[in-house]
Amino acid sequence: MSYTAPVKDMLFAIEHLAGIEQVAQLPGFEDAGLDTAAAVLEECARFNEGVVAPLNVPGDQNPSSWKDGVVTTTPGFKEAFAQFAEGGWQGLQHPQDFGGQGLPKTIGAACVEMLNSANLSFALCPLLTDGAIEALLTAGSEELKRTYLEKLISGQWTGTMNLTEPQAGSDLALVRTRADRQDDGTYKIFGTKIFITYGEHDMAENIVHLVLARVAGAPEGVKGISLFVVPKFLVNADGSLGARNDAHCVSIEHKLGIKASPTAVLQFGDHGGAVGWLVGEENRGLEYMFIMMNAARYAVGVQGIAVAERAYQHAVQYARERVQSRPVDGSIKASAAIIHHPDVRRMLMTMRSLTEGCRAMAAVAAAAYDASHHHADEQVRKDNATFYEFMVPLVKGFSTEMSLEVTSLGVQVHGGMGFIEETGAAQYYRDARILPIYEGTTAIQANDLVGRKTGRDGGATARAIAAQIEKTEGELHASGSEAARAMGERLAAARTAFVEVVDFVVSQMKADPNAVFAGSVPYLMLAGNLVAGWQMARALLVAEKLSATAQDAAFMQAKVATARFYAEHILVRAPALRDEIVHGGASTMQMALEAF
Amino acid sequence: MSYTAPVKDMLFAIEHLAGIEQVAQLPGFEDAGLDTAAAVLEECARFNEGVVAPLNVPGDQNPSSWKDGVVTTTPGFKEAFAQFAEGGWQGLQHPQDFGGQGLPKTIGAACVEMLNSANLSFALCPLLTDGAIEALLTAGSEELKRTYLEKLISGQWTGTMNLTEPQAGSDLALVRTRADRQDDGTYKIFGTKIFITYGEHDMAENIVHLVLARVAGAPEGVKGISLFVVPKFLVNADGSLGARNDAHCVSIEHKLGIKASPTAVLQFGDHGGAVGWLVGEENRGLEYMFIMMNAARYAVGVQGIAVAERAYQHAVQYARERVQSRPVDGSIKASAAIIHHPDVRRMLMTMRSLTEGCRAMAAVAAAAYDASHHHADEQVRKDNATFYEFMVPLVKGFSTEMSLEVTSLGVQVHGGMGFIEETGAAQYYRDARILPIYEGTTAIQANDLVGRKTGRDGGATARAIAAQIEKTEGELHASGSEAARAMGERLAAARTAFVEVVDFVVSQMKADPNAVFAGSVPYLMLAGNLVAGWQMARALLVAEKLSATAQDAAFMQAKVATARFYAEHILVRAPALRDEIVHGGASTMQMALEAF
């Protein structure tokens, strides 16, 4: 199935919801207005549609393979990655000082979506490299930056994040990899890391591993973790490659999905110790890791949107072609394409509205990120940072959970053919299943939302968002159209439910932490549903206005219909989540452990 | 992962919800009381735990394979099937006249669940054979019965259902397979059938295909379809096998799941015509097919329960063993098994309560089936048949849809390990995905529920069920315990929502069929959720009473806790479905077709 990037919808979100013209007023982004966005997205669409998307099925059928420590990627991946690097796509959002293009996240996020729609497995390599770049930019010494950044940003080398160990997944306090200080200021690294995405491959000359480890004598738990750069090949002073480092891929995993992306077990130090360089200061590794992690979490949320979009396109195409049964309303007197059947429409509209809602939410979060880094006014930066931080678990958690629903519906639309691998719908279902797990499971995102993002400020950020939503409800009321009225009603009910949950979380956090955390994932699902719905409400208002005048009336009418569907089919789920959270804590924890 | 049949919970449902002692008062079932049920279930558990379950992972890793028309099943399958036949398991629910054991469905359904929990792929062969047996029992001539039934019931031969063709899936009006009448009373069959489960294999001497086809001159559409028996090997007068029939397996599918179950493309008549024998009368094939289909639909619903149970057990075991992070309530001052974490508990309880709720619903439906066939009083038979017919789309549709949720949560509980195939959790996720598709997609079940089961009698059956539920609410109110109160409140809200939807369906069916059918799947999900919840409410009442006196107080307390969880986390979803159905029809159909 070919992929067509939804450039029009992306630009709608970038222009009308994220407000690209305000982003273009930020210092450093003067050239990043709507025209730039349109030009970049068009070029990005061409590249991904033409070069990367055709490798998606081959990657699934002929995954990365391992032999004697060497990983060979799917034929075509290496060449496509060379084109990716050549096109400057790795550096899109990175500083011009190191060869990047310095574009805002508001534009970059749409490009990340396209790359992931085209090929989730392929896109993971740049995604992890982005994380490594962020960490080095934030905490790396000048020497580390000089040695690595240009080559990472150009796509000549790639990066990885080495967190997980067999006994330490969500719980990084259990990390055991050891770093021994050497006299020359370097460290020798010893340990085993698992689940290392693109931990070994043949697409780049060098791989720059960012590795969490403990220095001898460090405090126990997460406060004793440091971050190291451990390159696959040591780098000479002139930038050329030196000796092979003692970091070896001993196997790759046999996975449910994203099969083309090699998931490596890396062994550090089996032959005397891998040479590592400290990033920043000792014992501050977790802090730096969260920088990589936060960038990666947002990006994984975008992966959810991306795979949902691809699954939607695949399902629409099938629904247009597959002829089966007469329409129930008698409008066609013969067997018709299944897209005429109400239940198929319900499935497609669910897929579409969830995808567009999450895309809009991610775009708005990206604009806040840009303002949080570039705005001249400190308070504005801070406010935007607070908003963005609140959005990260929603973008990651809600968009990835919704991608499970959307890719499952994608299979269902295909009927029996959906279960046949050659059809292609099943690949999205399999690929998507990792998204609510890696870079922090949905529960980890939800704990973050409950603890750091809601509990810590007593619910202030959450209530501020609710107040903004209430303003949108006022605008919907003022519009008065049937669609706006329907949206306003559902948005108000969902927002009310959200505020009740925030009150519950804040008031019960200390008194009954089990009940609060039993409701954490439902809270995340409620918040994500609401915020995405809020953006659909804003989209509806814009589209109603523009549908009267725009050249593109059909697009605007479709946006209104999609937003209204979101209100009446997705936002309506919110009150049930409230009930589950506020009243369901006790029954979650009630049954005796032995009875399971 | 080993499998332990939930015999205790099955017997609880059989005794207290399905009412096995009433079933044992039906003519023909005098020996089928609780003791028999317990003895059969214990024996069945032993067989499935010991023989069938260990083949589940091997079947996935080393699936059925095709070469030159011959299908070789996974090593061990043939031997296990011989033991299955030897044990008399195929004949459990079939008439003693033909060598069966004539046990009620109330007992048989639990055995079907065990077999499917043990191995979904393996269990499909007997499942399809059951359908063939039902069709022959109902409509086969004496000669056909004499020729085939004993050997099918003994497990010496197996059966298949040949409905689907490339252009005819849900829409059987499009069937093109041709049957040419011969002078000797047989027919020559020509055509291609796809998605034929166990259409070819090496586990039995002969395969008895039941095939839908059109006789020359038959009316168009579904009224011109006839049903034929087309054996793989012709059967001599003495019952021995004769010539190979012209029905050949030209390929098997490469599927997302249930990989050990060969899904065949069968070519009939490429070498002169396959010999077929008419079942019943010409042009009544669809009617007979529905007999097979209804048995199979119920059984597929049980497959959903079965795979959910297996996924639950797998997840519980992992959650007990995997140590990660400290409990949020401070109850343990070190990293603890993840089963201590509220969100893991929420996932496990969701899995458990959905599984138990659907098991209870299926058990009650089975008892109605038994009464509908065996009760002495015609009106009682009729009432039970009506109830059972209403239940079939719920058992099939809701239990299979819930199995997607449960198996997905099963992966999630495992975190990153869930995505690694060797862990085994992913297999359930893949296997389950076919269940809401085959034997009629969820939409097909929902159309049946809306049209034949609700619209046709003006909602009478649905409202009668609602009235029964209201009685249970009264009993919950009378009980007065906190759990009963919570359940009563949620049950009443869900029942009210259900009745509103029934009113909507009945009143709008002609005026706005698109809106009604746009809400058909949500209606099915609401009805299934409610009826399963109703059974959990009944279970709660029984368990509360027994927990004071029973030896097995721990089991009874767990049942109360699970029922309450169901009320507060699953039943609460009902009002949102009502909103979606009653208010969401217009927005489902609003967007222009070109805009997709």
TrEMBL record, chains A, B:
Keywords: FAD, Flavoprotein, Oxidoreductase. Residues 283-449 form the Acyl-CoA dehydrogenase/oxidase C-terminal domain. GO terms for molecular function: flavin adenine dinucleotide binding; oxidoreductase activity, acting on the CH-CH group of donors. Residues 161-269 form the Acyl-CoA oxidase/dehydrogenase middle domain. Residues 78-156 form the Acyl-CoA dehydrogenase/oxidase N-terminal domain. It comes from the Bacteria. Belongs to the acyl-CoA dehydrogenase family. This is 3-methylmercaptopropionyl-CoA dehydrogenase. It comes from Pulveribacter suum.
